[in-house]
Structures are given as structure tokens and as C-alpha cells.
Design goal:
heterotetramer; A mainly alpha (193); B alpha+beta (196); C alpha+beta (266); D mainly alpha (226); B: 196 residues; alpha+beta; 7-stranded antiparallel β-sheet; two-stranded parallel ribbon; 4 helices; elongated; C: 266 residues; Alpha-Beta Plaits; 3 domains; 8 strands
């Protein structure tokens, strides 16, 4: 149990996906304009991350490793993730239209989200067990949410700031992101033994 | 019914089949080269921790050692036997240790009568410029020579006796991690050399 | 052979997913009227919300399901409205395409200043401090809040006064809602003459604060042949429907705040 | 003549007008993570260009026969295949660059540039133009991340492509090698890029609005609602 807790805190703070491992930056910068959109996006990411970790782990354990097909990892994982996302989208659109309205718009964005495939490749590298990799996915999703909401608050305050002409839009967001990521460097020394 | 369900799945099946076919072909071509590269790289890394050995038997993993009844620390990954013109003169131990930036792998070359031939960090993600300095010889050469009966201890100031290792400034966590790894390797070899 | 197994594994997966996905999209098919897609294609797609719906998808749905007239989308202009109306089999009908106009000429030279404002470049911020730095409390502050919300780059702010480029303006109305002084009004494009002032103070006070403000002298009301001008608390207002663009009011106005902005749009 | 001019403009388009990294802000993950050294940027850029050209070519060939229901999985499989081919070639031919680029070679698959170009361009144009676009975009990406790599390496480690440049001039600031430095350098470079190119097409919305989520594209940003 202690081991799971270490993974949870590790993936959420020490190895925060967005701010230290640089995974999932595209949606992070793209959708953090408003906190409401940020919430919707992070909900979708956590949901898909947990599901995809479970399915990719099973695919890896029972399909790839027995037949010594490690080099097929990338293609299998991304195929699984793309199919999973599309499946979730169609199901959500039919069964829970309201949830789809707030959450579903971001689902196609997640297929191309580096964090999802990144976390799948990481659990292979560290050969986590099934439960560990799902917890890792969940923690990574939480880390993503934490960073996204934190950052969308910052960005909303940026709206009223007085920014030089060339810096308007994306440059000032990137500089703000660098300051936020400095705070997460502080967690680097945290060793959870 | 056909158009809706069978056609898309057939096309996806075909696309996957063709693509994986190409992939498998490329893999079958590159596989031997990659394995060769890996072996060369491995031999090289072993060589630079134990340079007067001329070949290394393939490694025994921790499980194999356990089955032989040797009580192996849980950080040990595997152990190679080093040979010099035919006889085994020592070992190279691959051991894990958790440093500042997470897990790192250390190779330690030790000969039969327990003096250390070389230490090197193979893969780590310590902070560049700080913890990463543990990888260069200035720090690792301190381990060369006779291994102490007890363990090393890491000091901040200039070491005054054989068993003390000077930590890298602002990277004590990394220095301690490397030292702990070397201690575990020495303990294992003491067991193996003593026993074998 | 080392090629058959991987091909079998991945394409097997591909087949399973292909079947799964197409089966799912068949079972969980949400009955979507394909006309919505077609109408959505014809709409400009700027998602500006001028039609009052949540973007073009919302409007497309309304047009197909609730029979809303396509002219609700001011951004597209006549071409879009005609195309959609033909597609839906509805008559185009007359459309009153509006253009936004700033009813104020108070730039830095014309209007006196109460205080020197160095704060955030945003009209709402300035407006909080005693109604902004202009002596005339109704005038344009020229800090560009309207410019920020205009999706079509149709607003230019110079010398402390916002002005709207009629050719670019699509009448989406975002700026009207944004302006804290609410001095931007949507006026039918064909009506040329408007009173470029929003000041309800008495004549004497208005003259002191701004050189080009309406002082409520009522000359324009007397001279207008189709009496399209009415006085609303010391401010002349021209009713676009009645106004015949004769232009006599502009000549007679001592403050020169009635201007002719006829725009050749369609 | 028009045909050649168009294809030439498609090629150049990727370099400046629609530079994927500085203008469309695509492929942010690799361009921030790998560019601790200029040499890495070059290696990563070359690999990404190979995958981009290959996948654009194949996708533009099969775009007519792939039904819409399985469009995303099919395209992703094509991109993944090319990525794995690059991964294998890299491991076989250039082992030392492969060691540095590590986890980021497989991540080329989800590199937004490739999927975005597949959706935006290869989906609508013929193979010849798509290959050109792939080359242009790849070159633009390589150029951009090599610049970022060089800036971060000079400031952070005092060397350029391994040659010590400013190591004795000033004490290198390690911060530029760390993640925050990446964001900072990227921010300033995008600002510089905006300053150089005129303001007009700076807020050029990504016209197709395919919702791939590229940060520069306002359609994805307000997530559909007004």
C-alpha cells in the first residue's frame, strides 16, 4: 500500500507530467484560457488516462510480451488509445448527452495528447503491475488537472494585464508557464522511500 | 449492414496489416544490428569499469543468485564474472540506487580480493550540472583501491582516511546514493568471493 | 515466421477495434438531422455568438429544428442568408443588416479631462474611477475594451476615441454589450445620418466639457422635413426608419455632431 | 507555372508563414523537452521530418478509401508505423543520439504537428503537395527546435553543438537546461517571431478548425461554445 502512495504523490507532484516531464503541453496551453474549459478538459484526461492505462497494460502483458513483440508497443498502444477515445466519445454522446456537451468536445484532442501515450510507455519502462500502472495513470491525470487549473487561474488574470504588443497571446502564456513550472521544481528533491 | 460495419473494419484491418507487415520487415532487418549494438555497448560499459579483464561471461540475474542460495540485496540487478586470459579474476555488479532525480543504475567492477577496479553511472536523471557531476571520474575515482571492511562514509570536507568519500558540493543526496550502491556491490562480491 | 505473428496480432487488434467502433457508432447512433451539418457548413463559422446561440452549431440546429430565419446570423451577410434560405426552402425576406457606430466624437482634443488616467488599458477599469477621465461622463474613454472583443478587427482606437470601420463591421453586437458607457449602437447600414453624441447634460454644461457635444438647441428638430428627430433629455436622436437622409440637420447643427456615414456595403 | 508556384509556396509556407512551432504552436512537447542541446534538436527534427513526409504521403494516398468512422485509428496507425521505423533505424544506425532522445522518439506519434498536418493538409490534397508540405513543415520544425536548442545550450551549458563557446565568458545558468528555462526561451522566441513577421497574419486562425487542439487556434481554445 505504501508503494502505491509513493507512486501517487510522485506522479502528481515530483514528476508532474506537464511541468517537469513536458508531456501534454499542447492541450495544456490550448485549453487553459478559461477555468471552466480547463475543468472539462482535465476531467476528460483523467478519465481516459485511467482507462487507457488499464487497457494498454493488458494488451502489453497478454499480447506483446508473450510473443516478444516489444517493438510493436508504440503502434499497439496508440491504436488502443485512439479506439478507446472514439469508443468513449460515441458512448458518451448517446448515453449522457449533457456530460458530453461539457466534456466530450475535448475527447478527440486527447488522442493526440502526449501525456496518455507517455504514461503508457513509462509504465512499461518501470514494469509496474496492473494496479500500480492504473494508479500511476490516475496520479498523472491529477497532476495534469492540478497544473491546468493552477495555470488557467493565472491566465485569466493575464487578461487584464497590460502586455507589450509582441508578447500578447502565446508568448506571455509561455513565460507565465515557466514561472509556474519553477514552483514545481521545488518538489524535485522530495524522496518518498 | 455491410457498408456500416464490415467495410470500415475491413479497411482498418487492411491498413493495420500492411503497416505492421512493413514494420515487421524493417524490424527483421534491423534486429541483428540492434542486438549487436547493445552487446558492444554493454561490453564497452563493462570494460571501462574493469579494464584489465578481457572478456565477461554473461550475467547472472538476482533471481539466479537467489536460487543458488546467495542472499542478494534487493537493489542488485545482475552480476557478470570478469575473466582475464581464461580465469575469472573478479566481477562487475549492476546495482540500482535511488538518487535525487529518481532511480539510477551503477556498474561496479570489483576483483576477487575486493579492491574496486572502477565505478560508473550508466543511466540516471540527476539534475544536470549538479547531481550529474557524480558521473565524471573526479568523483568515481575516489572509490578505486581497497574496499573497506565496513561501508564507506560520505564526508563534506576533505577525506582523511581510506574509507571516506568527499561528497560533491550541493549534491550530497546523489553522492550518498552512489556510495550506497557501491557498498551493496562490495557486500555481494565479498559474499560471492568469500563463498565461491 | 517472424513477420506473420506481429501482423496477426496488430491487424487482429485493428479488426476488433474496427468492428467495435463501427458497431458502437451504429448502436449508439444519435439521430442527427444531416441538414444541420449542411447548414453548419454554409454558416461563416466564426462562433461569435451574435445570433444569440452558442456558436454556429447552435444556430444551425435552431435553423433546422426551430425554423429560425437565417438572417439571425448578421455576420454572413446577404450571400449566406440567401444560400441557407434557398436550402431550407424559406423565402429570404427583407433583412435589416445593422452596422455598429460609436455615438461620440470626444477624442483627446475635443474633450476636457477630469484627471490623468495611467491605469490598466481597459474602459471598465477607468469607468470605475468616477466614470472615467473624460469631463463628459457619457463620452468614449478610448481604452479599447470594444477593440478587444471585436473578432473582425473592425474597431480602431486613435487619440482617445474608438471608431468603427463600417466595411469590416458585421453587426455582431459584441462591442455594444462590452462598452461600459454603452455609446455603441447598432444602426441600419442604409441610414446615413446619426447624432454622434450621447450627452444628456444641459447645453451649458455640455459645451464646457466637450467642443463637439450636442447642446440640445433643437435646431435640427425644427428643420427636419420628416420630423425624424426627437429630443430625449437634451439629446437629439434620429429615428433611422423615418430619416430620409436629406442632410439638412447636419448643416444646421452648430456643434457639427450630426455626421453622414453612408456606407456602400452590398 | 501556377502549379509550380503553388507547390513552391506550399513548401515555403511551413518555414515562415505557418512555422509549426512558432506560429501554429504545434509539437510543443518535443520542442521543449528535447532541446537541451542543439544536436538533439537536429536529430529530433530529422526524425520528425521523415515521419511527417512518410505519413503525409501515405495518408493522402488512402484518404479516399478510409471511411470516416475509422479515420482517426487508421491515420494514427500509419503515423505510428513510420515512427517505429524511425525508432528502429535510429537504434540501429545512430545509437548515441538514440540514447539522448530516449522517450521522445516514440512520442513523435502524438506529436501534434504530424496529426494536425494529416488532418489539415494530407486529408485534402494530393500526394505530391502533401509530401512538399511535409518537407516544409518538417524543415520549419527542425529549424525552430535547433534554434531553441542552441539558445538553451549556449545559455545553459556554455557550449554549442558541444564546442565550448561562452563557458569562460559567464557562468552558464543551469536553469535554461531545466524545464522552466524551456518555457522561457520558447516564450521569448515566439515573441521575437511575432515582432519580425508583421502583425497582420499573427492571429491567422487555423482556418480549418479541425479541433486538434493546437494552442494557436482559437476554435479549439473556446472549445466550441461562444
Amino acid at each position: 500500500m505504501k508503494e502505491l502512495f509513493a507512486i501517487l504523490i510522485g506522479a502528481m507532484l515530483v514528476e508532474n507530467f506537464v511541468l517537469t516531464k513536458f508531456l501534454g503541453i499542447c492541450p495544456f496551453l490550448g485549453v487553459s484560457k478559461k477555468t471552466s474549459t480547463a475543468l472539462g478538459m482535465s476531467g476528460a484526461v483523467v478519465f481516459v488516462l485511467v482507462l487507457s492505462q488499464a487497457v494498454t497494460w493488458l494488451a502489453n502483458e497478454y499480447l506483446l510480451v508473450p510473443n516478444k513483440l516489444e517493438y510493436l508497443q508504440t503502434i499497439t498502444f496508440i491504436l488502443v488509445i485512439a479506439a478507446l477515445v472514439q469508443f468513449v466519445e460515441t458512448v458518451l454522446k448517446k448515453l449522457m448527452p449533457s456530460l458530453y456537451k461539457s466534456l466530450g468536445v475535448y475527447l478527440p484532442l486527447i488522442t493526440t495528447n502526449c501525456a496518455v501515450l507517455g504514461s503508457a510507455l513509462i509504465f512499461v519502462e518501470r514494469d509496474y503491475t496492473f494496479v500500480e500502472s492504473v494508479v500511476f495513470g490516475f496520479a498523472a491525470g491529477l497532476g495534469f488537472t492540478l497544473a491546468l487549473i493552477l495555470f488557467s487561474g493565472v491566465r485569466e488574470r493575464l487578461e487584464t494585464a497590460d502586455i507589450p504588443e509582441a508578447f500578447k497571446g502565446m508568448p506571455i502564456t509561455l513565460i507565465a508557464a515557466s514561472l509556474v513550472s519553477i514552483t514545481f521544481i521545488g518538489f524535485a528533491g522530495l524522496i518518498i522511500s | 449492414m455491410f457498408k456500416e460495419i464490415i467495410k470500415p473494419s475491413l479497411i482498418l484491418f487492411l491498413v493495420c496489416a500492411i503497416m505492421t507487415g512493413a514494420l515487421a520487415y524493417v524490424n527483421s532487418v534491423t534486429k541483428p544490428i540492434i542486438d549487436e549494438n547493445n552487446i558492444i555497448a554493454e561490453q564497452e560499459s563493462l570494460k571501462n569499469v574493469y579494464n584489465d579483464a578481457d572478456n565477461f561471461l554473461d550475467a547472472k540475474t538476482a533471481e539466479e543468485l537467489k536460487s543458488e542460495g546467495i542472499d542478494v540485496g534487493d537493489n542488485i540487478e545482475k552480476i557478470y564474472t570478469a575473466q582475464k586470459d581464461g580465469q575469472s579474476v573478479g566481477y562487475v555488479v549492476a546495482v540500482f540506487s535511488s538518487g535525487y532525480g529518481g532511480q539510477m543504475k551503477i556498474l561496479v567492477g570489483i576483483d576477487n580480493d575486493l579492491n574496486i577496479e572502477g565505478v560508473s553511472l550508466t543511466n540516471h536523471n540527476e539534475t544536470p550540472g549538479l547531481g550529474a557531476n557524480a558521473a565524471d571520474p573526479k568523483f568515481t575515482d575516489q572509490f578505486l583501491g581497497k574496499a573497506p571492511e565496513t561501508t564507506y562514509n560520505v564526508v563534506k570536507s576533505v577525506p582523511n582516511n581510506e574509507n571516506e568519500i568527499q561528497a560533491i558540493t550541493a549534491a550530497t543526496v546523489t553522492s550518498k546514493a552512489v556510495t550506497k550502491g557501491v557498498d551493496e556491490a562490495v557486500a555481494l562480491v565479498r559474499l560471492m568471493a568469500g563463498g565461491a | 515466421m517472424s513477420i506473420i505473428i506481429p501482423v496477426a496480432v496488430v491487424s487482429g487488434l485493428g479488426l476488433v477495434f474496427g468492428l467495435g467502433l463501427s458497431y458502437a457508432s451504429k448502436v449508439f447512433e444519435v439521430k442527427v438531422d444531416e441538414r444541420i451539418g449542411a447548414v453548419r457548413e454554409m454558416l461563416p463559422g466564426a462562433n461569435c455568438g451574435a445570433c444569440g446561440y452558442s456558436g454556429c452549431d447552435g444556430l444551425a440546429e435552431a435553423i433546422v429544428n426551430e425554423g429560425v430565419h437565417a438572417s439571425r446570423c448578421p455576420v454572413g451577410g446577404i450571400s449566406v442568408v440567401n444560400a441557407i434560405s434557398d436550402y431550407m426552402g424559406v423565402d429570404e425576406g427583407s433583412i435589416d443588416v445593422n452596422v455598429a457606430r460609436v455615438l461620440c466624437q470626444g477624442n483627446c482634443d475635443n474633450v476636457k479631462m477630469k484627471y490623468n488616467y495611467l491605469g490598466i488599458e481597459d474602459c471598465h477599469a477607468a469607468n470605475v474611477l468616477a466614470g472615467g477621465m473624460d469631463a463628459c461622463n457619457y463620452g468614449c474613454l478610448g481604452l479599447g475594451s470594444c477593440k478587444k472583443v471585436c473578432q473582425f478587427d473592425a474597431i480602431v482606437v486613435e487619440n482617445g476615441l474608438a471608431s468603427i470601420i463600417a466595411e469590416k463591421c458585421t453587426g455582431c453586437g459584441n462591442c455594444v454589450a462590452e462598452c461600459p458607457k454603452s455609446i455603441i449602437k447598432l444602426i441600419p447600414v442604409l441610414s446615413g445620418f446619426t447624432v454622434k453624441c450621447n450627452n444628456h447634460d444641459k447645453g451649458g454644461v455640455a459645451r464646457k466639457n466637450c467642443k463637439v457635444g450636442c447642446i440640445g438647441c433643437q435646431r435640427c428638430v425644427k428643420v427636419c422635413p420628416s420630423d425624424a428627430i426627437t429630443m430625449v433629455e437634451n439629446l437629439a436622436v434620429i429615428d433611422p426608419q423615418k430619416c430620409t437622409n436629406c442632410g439638412q440637420c447636419a448643416e444646421v447643427c452648430p456643434q457639427k455632431c450630426i455626421t453622414n456615414t453612408i456606407v456602400k456595403r452590398f | 507555372m501556377a502549379e509550380r508556384k503553388k507547390s513552391f509556396s506550399v513548401l515555403l509556407n511551413g518555414l515562415i508563414k505557418e512555422n509549426p512551432t512558432f506560429r501554429l504552436l504545434l509539437g510543443m512537447c518535443p520542442s521543449l523537452a528535447v532541446t537541451t542541446m542543439a544536436k538533439n534538436g537536429l536529430g529530433m527534427g530529422a526524425a520528425a521530418t521523415f515521419v511527417l513526409v512518410g505519413s503525409n504521403l501515405v495518408i493522402s494516398l488512402i484518404r479516399k478509401i478510409v471511411p470516416d468512422k475509422v479515420r482517426i485509428p487508421a491515420y494514427i496507425t500509419v503515423i505510428a508505423t513510420f515512427t517505429t521505423i524511425v525508432q528502429l533505424l535510429m537504434a540501429a544506425l545512430l545509437p548515441e543520439i538514440n540514447k539522448q532522445l530516449g522517450i521522445f522518439i516514440p512520442l513523435i506519434v502524438v506529436n501534434c504537428i504530424i496529426f494536425a498536418r494529416a488532418e489539415m493538409f494530407a486529408q485534402k490534397n494530393g500526394p505530391f503537395l502533401s509530401v512538399l508540405d511535409g518537407l516544409g513543415m518538417g524543415a520549419g520544425f527542425t529549424l525552430a527546435i535547433t534554434i531553441i536548442g542552441s539558445v538553451r545550450e549556449i545559455l545553459g551549458a556554455g557550449t554549442w553543438m558541444g564546442i565550448p563557446v561562452t563557458v569562460n565568458l559567464f557562468e552558464p545558468a543551469i536553469m535554461f537546461i531545466l524545464p522552466p528555462g524551456g518555457f522561457l526561451v520558447m516564450g521569448f522566441l515566439v515573441a521575437l517571431f511575432n515582432k519580425l513577421t508583421n502583425k497582420k497574419d499573427r492571429n491567422a486562425e487555423c482556418e480549418t478548425g479541425c479541433g486538434v487542439g493546437c494552442p494557436g487556434c482559437s476554435k479549439a481554445v473556446n472549445g466550441g461554445e461562444a
